[in-house]
Design goal:
The chain is an alpha+beta fold and 71 residues long. Helix content is 28%, strand content 38%. It is built from 2 helices and 5 strands; from the N terminus they run E-E-H-E-E-H-E. Strand 1 and strand 2 form a beta hairpin. The longest helix is centred in the C-terminal third of the chain and has 11 residues. The radius of gyration is 11 Å and the shape is globular. The two termini are 15 Å apart.
Length: 71
């Protein structure tokens, strides 16, 4: 099982649909903070949204079982 996104900009993530809705509200060039769980480790990752093409790559990873989004 891959990484699990459990938070987005200090808000809990319940499912992929909620994550996508929150992501859609962020303007390109803005920073976001993700709370990610990997096994027993939970950590924050910050990133700047510069190109929306990364979302399609993330969805490919999710479909391949490498990334799961839920709370």
């Amino acid at each position: 099982r891959g990484d699990v996104i459990v938070g987005f900009n200090s808000k809990d993530i319940k499912n992929v649909e909620q994550f996508n809705q929150m992501l859609d509200k962020v303007d390109e060039g803005r920073n976001i903070a993700l709370l990610i769980k990997r096994g027993d480790l939970t950590t924050f990752v910050t990133m700047k949204l510069e190109n929306v093409d990364w979302l399609s790559e993330m969805n490919k990873n999710r479909e391949a079982g490498k990334l799961v989004v839920y709370g």
